[in-house]
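>> received
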Amino acid sequence: MRWQPVLLTAGGIGVTLLCLLGGSWLGPLGAALNLLTPMAAAYLSMRFGLRAGIIVVAVVSLLLLQMGPLYTLTAYLGLFGTGSLLLPWLLKLGQSWDRAVFLSVAGAVAVTGLLAVVALLTSKGGFDQLVGQVIQTEVDQAMHIYRQAGVTGAKLKELQQVVDGLADFIRQNFYGLYVAGVLVVQLLSLVLLQGLKRNDYRIPGVPFSCWHLPAVLIWVLIVAGFFMLLPVAQLTLVGRNLLAVLLPLYFVQGLAVVSNFLQRKAYPPAVKGLIYTVLVIFNPLPLLITGVGIFDLWIDFRRPRNKDK
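>> returned
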């Protein structure tokens, strides 16, 4: 239909704003909705071309610039907006999905750095103060949600301590957690694009069940773990930030091992989806899956085993 791209683009702007700002209305559910912020622009870019996605990102950026401080726009473009354009653009160029995700994350981090410099030049204080301001805004919003939900008294104080502790952890490991956050957003966008593609577009690359991280990356993981053991604060900080990025990657490789196993079984799609959900949500299963991803380099869980006859 001639008007379909126009209507879907207009709808994409509304959906993006809902996902981005819905956390302040929907409480904990809004955090999950927030992860879907780049989906509309990415899908429209894959289906109708990059121009549709650019319109969504540009309009949302202009609205955010009018609604709040500059760091709000920086957070949107860095975490969601840039990747929602880069990922589909690279996929349509024929880049494999894993390379497209890597380049999208790198591009989003670079854009965030540039926008952070602009924010610093137009505001008072250093980068640590800017990061602290962003984190404190999120803390205040989280506590406001809890108060609206009717939490009071000792329970509210307990939640305040938990949120403050989490905020301190994020401040100490901000760089690695930010990159990991961008990575998670891009991987989730890729999964949703795969689920919505039908015959409208294709996603190139090796099947997920066969995917491996580069073997050399294990040495970076070992060095990061070694840094964590050293009594040097700067090296410990580097190690923590490296692990914040690497462990999610090995978790994804562990899921690839699980995917390879599930392909050999005649489970219905709903059952497979339930298995993935359980593995992602319930502790300590994510830690076990991460371990599978790490040791897959040596054990090769996906290698066919000869059965005794």
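>> DSSP finds 14 helices and no strands in the chain.
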